Input
Amino acid sequence: MSTLPTQVNLTESSSRDGLQSLGAFVPTEAKAGLITDLAATGLRTFDAVSFVSPKAVPQMADGADVIAGVEGREDLELYGLVPNMMGLEFALEAGVTHIGVLTAASDTFNQRNINATVDESMHRILRILNEAPGGLTFRAYISTATHCPFEGEQDPDWVAHLAETLIEWGADYVFLGETIGKATPAHVDRLLDEVLALVPAKKVGVHFHDTYGQAVANTVVALERGITMMDASAGGLGGCPYAPGATGNIATEDLIWLLDGLGIEHGLDLRAIADVAYRFCDKHNLTYNSKAGRARLASEGVQ
Ligand code: HMG
Ligand code: MG
Output
């Protein structure tokens, strides 16, 4: 195996990506409690909430209150995902200093998701980056980075061009969103060939969904290419309301098991995270979707 990083930074996405597609509203205190409990296990960076239209995604209508309800929030990096200037304003009012902005690589998904062509959403991002006050940290997501649910496989050159542009415009990091979990290691390899030719690995993160069961394999490819930032979701919760059939991100517990096996430092506790996520799923009637977490809990007779 080629040289691997010695350490990675994991972003926990369960309270945002993990919950956004659910029909039944998860109470605000439960969302804030999920972040608080996961933070108590050692997680520090959260893809916590989004500030989007409540008509588009009713589940995320309570972003500001969720942030306010997180215990010890001043010690955490809580990202708020914003699709436009209005979202940025709401995020700033909520005291959020870590901002996720988004575009997709494909027009059809982007139109359905945020009612903008790729060109339009890139210009929304430019405006956000130009008009935001100083002192914020920005990560820019490029959804459908390998596959669009409507347009199929994406051109890695095009995605690399978007990534380079976002970094040139001032985004601190660019996150490659594998929105529908169709990519295999070969797709990720081809994408990273192009992206890493234009953007240094330390500015690139990956956001793999696990719909086709490829997220662990895809993560290995990213690690081999020197990428150290990755999103994951405790209990494998997640999906996108505008990507039919897409399931959750790589489960945080599965990622930790992989990292442990590869000897990569992460500072996290698989057992403690599994316990929080399992109890959350149980309470809210959700399927607990981490293979490693389930195995670990079963070995202790928890399930
Ligand atoms: P639009 O209809 O074009 O927006 O939607 P608009 O500007 O015409 O406004 C329509 C209404 O929304 C107005 O309210 C606005 O005030 C309100 P009304 O007058 O009708 O009462 N509005 C807002 N309210 C709260 N916060 C805002 C906001 N903006 C407008 N920021 C819009 C465009 C972008 C707003 C809409 O399409 C939207 O909110 N989309 C978000 C969809 C979403 O959240 N998708 C999931 C997140 S992306 C994802 O999961 C992918 C990722 O995980 C990576 C991956 O997996 O690839 C990140
Ligand atoms: Mg996602």
User: Anything to note?
Assistant: The pocket of 3-hydroxy-3-methylglutaryl-coenzyme A (ligand 1) is lined by residues 17, 20, 50-53, 55-57, 83-84, 86-87, 90, 102, 113-115, 141, 143, 177, 179, 207, 209, 240-242 (CB under 6 Å).
